[in-house]
Amino acid sequence: MPKQKTNKSIAKRVKVTKRGKILRGRPGRRHLLSVKKGKRRRQLRRGAELGKEEAFRVKKLLGLA
Description:
With 65 residues, the protein is α+β, with helices and mostly antiparallel strands. The protein has 3 helices and 3 strands, in the order αββαβα. Helices cover 35% and strands 12% of the residues. The protein has a 3-stranded antiparallel sheet with strand order 1-2-3, covered by helices on one side. A hairpin with a 5-residue loop joins strand 1 and strand 2. The two termini are 18 Å apart.
């Protein structure tokens, strides 16, 4: 049986923590940053954790589930 391939488009967009949580970047950090307040830009730097159902789907694409 052949090996399962990792979905590279997902692998580039998410990070898996040591405990198996899936982290993603927040939207809104690409352009028009001069319009946004400093507090909002700082908060956008921090990633967000995926929900339970979505994390399961992503793990399947990464070959972890």
